[in-house]
Design brief:
By secondary structure, this protein is of the alpha/beta class. It is 43% helix and 21% strand. It has one domain: HAD superfamily/HAD-like (Rossmann fold, 3-Layer(aba) Sandwich). The chain has ten helices and seven strands. Belongs to the HAD-like hydrolase superfamily. SerB family.
Length: 211
């Protein structure tokens, strides 16, 4: 029987980097993309518009770019231990990301996560078109995934945990039984019930055990 559910953001939470910024570097527009990312995460820009703007800058990149950026991505310290401990306690562990399935799926497979939701980039003839396929993962999507996966596992929202760093994580952080700002932007620090300000995901266990 499932005892609980953790839903995490990916960029700057599960991993140390921002995946889209790494793609921007590969496209030669690293600073431009990173500046938009920073503003979006602070809540200064509409996330969907900011994502489309950044993805447009990636047009023409070969799909093989994902193999290269995977080499530059590092799990945040404590990630594997946290997932193992929660699974040992009967939790499901999920990620929901404004990033892309092309990298997030690989990360989730390495940690054997239970659920993954992210954006998907359009590829034609082996090249990125600068477009996103389907609906973009927004702050409302993140909250909806938390709610849907809780229902699917017969859980009350009081049995859920949500953790992230950006403004688009706030609705799910505020909806969950335990909502955690992880090394987060100021707006998230101010509004989240719990905070971890050390780059160590296993610190979540201290919050959980202190409840």
């Amino acid at each position: 029987m499932t005892k609980g559910l953790l839903v995490m953001d990916v960029d700057s939470t599960l991993i140390l980097e921002e995946g889209i910024d790494l793609l921007g570097e590969e496209a030669g527009v690293g600073e431009e993309v990173a500046a938009i990312t920073e503003r979006a995460m602070r809540g200064e820009l509409d996330f969907e518009e900011a994502l489309r703007e950044r993805v447009a800058l990636l047009k023409g990149l070969p799909v093989t770019v994902f193999d290269r950026i995977m080499e530059k991505i590092h799990f945040t310290p404590g990630a594997a231990d946290l997932v193992a401990e929660l699974k040992n306690r009967g939790y499901k562990v999920a990620v929901v990301s404004g990033g892309f399935h092309e990298t997030v799926d690989r990360l989730a497979a390495q940690l054997e996560l239970d659920y993954v939701r992210a954006n998907r980039l359009e590829v034609v003839d082996g090249l990125l078109t600068g477009q996103v396929l389907g609906e973009i993962v927004t702050k409302e999507t993140k909250k909806a995934c938390l709610e849907a996966w809780a229902v699917e596992n017969g859980l009350e929202l009081s049995q859920t945990i949500a953790m992230g760093d950006g403004a688009n994580d706030l609705p799910m952080i505020q909806r969950a039984g335990i909502g955690v700002a992880f090394c987060a932007k100021p707006i998230v620090q101010e509004q989240a019930p719990y905070r971890i300000n050390e780059k160590n995901l296993y610190k979540l266990i201290e919050i959980l055990d202190g409840k």
